[in-house]
Amino acid sequence: MTQPTAFCADQIFDGNSMHEQAALLVRDEQVVEILPQSSVPSHFRQWQSTGDMIVPGFVDLQVNGGGGVLFNDEPTVAGIETICSAHARFGTTALLPTLITDSANVRDRALAAGRDASAAKVAGYLGLHLEGPHLSVARKGAHVSDFIRPMDAEDLSALVAGRDQIGCGLITVAPENVSAEQVRALSKAGWNVSLGHSNCKAADAFAYFAAGASMVTHLFNAMSQLTNREPGLVGAALATDPVYCGLIADGIHVDIATMKVALRAKRDPGQIFFVTDAMSPTGTDVTEFILGGRTIYRRDGRLTLADGTLAGADIDMMSMVRHAVNVLDLPLEIALRMASTYPADAIGVPTKGRLGDGCDADFLMLNKDLSLQSTWIAGQRRYETEPQGA
Ligand SMILES: [Zn+2]
């Protein structure tokens, strides 16, 4: 869209506050500013929102797949495009395709695909998340234990060299298989380091946070828990203010009361943010798929191995925001921030997850009942719901 456009809506949420009867001014893929509708300059084309409100597009830092594609199976630009467009249908405008534990060869292919997707400016692609293989076997979840291993010098140099030009980089590691020194080196190379799939003691977690780890991956799931005399990774993350925590808020991975306790415990500047941990079925009707050679069953909102182990989540970001408002009783503004502003802050991208001056024009048009009307990335409409009755 070359012509500057003023997107008008009853309400516009900029990630910080709600503006009534406002206009979002967009020029050259970026937000210019938010003004009262009565003050829109005449050279801006006016576009009336089809929904009741405009909000920042969602940012999802953990997306294993979507649209029938699992990133591990298709670590290619085409695979990334399919995943990004599948999630745009649910309001996600920036995501990290997430590679779970696999061989070094697949990791290298994923890094190459990330570089190419970044160069090609694939809409919705923000960077890569490597979840494994340097995790704890004791907390492997659905990861294939044969591939789980300590990080060696070769891995570290491949990761440091591969960090360039992929956009954002997030890596989940466990202290059991990665040294604090390696975390320091990864962090220096520009990786956001997250602790996860770990049975570590709180003392180890504190040391790794001091070494540069700044996040934990899916808080509560696949990690040492908070108990009276040993706070575990959960306790360490909640007690360390600047640390950010991803959370799969589908009501299945973590009990609602547990989520409420964590939300009360977590203090600024770190925040709890939503991740979907979505797999290939998102946006499709498939009832089973193969992950690491094993069948995953999709039933009653769950994805599980035959033995019942959870293997990612069967939820999209729009549903998670609705769930947060309706079941977790979160104010809408907080739920929206947890899906957009906080993950953008966690990964250090101030131009995403909010609609302030100079931010990327990634936004959604929503109805009051939190149904999605349309998804816009860099000022371009990428998805629109079918008109009712069509
Ligand atoms: Zn995981």
TrEMBL record:
The gene is nagA. Transmembrane segments: none annotated. This is N-acetylglucosamine-6-phosphate deacetylase. The keyword Metal-binding applies. It comes from the Bacteria. Binds 1 divalent metal cation per subunit. GO terms for molecular function: metal ion binding; N-acetylglucosamine-6-phosphate deacetylase activity. CDD domains: NagA (cd00854). PANTHER family: N-ACETYLGLUCOSAMINE-6-PHOSPHATE DEACETYLASE. Residues 53-380 form the Amidohydrolase-related domain. Keywords: Carbohydrate metabolism, Hydrolase, Metal-binding. Belongs to the metallo-dependent hydrolases superfamily. NagA family. It holds the Pfam family Amidohydro_1. The active site is at D277. Substrate binds at A142, N221, A222, R229, H253, L310, A311, G312. Zn(2+) binds at E131, H197, H218. Its cofactor is a divalent metal cation. GO terms for biological process: N-acetylglucosamine catabolic process.
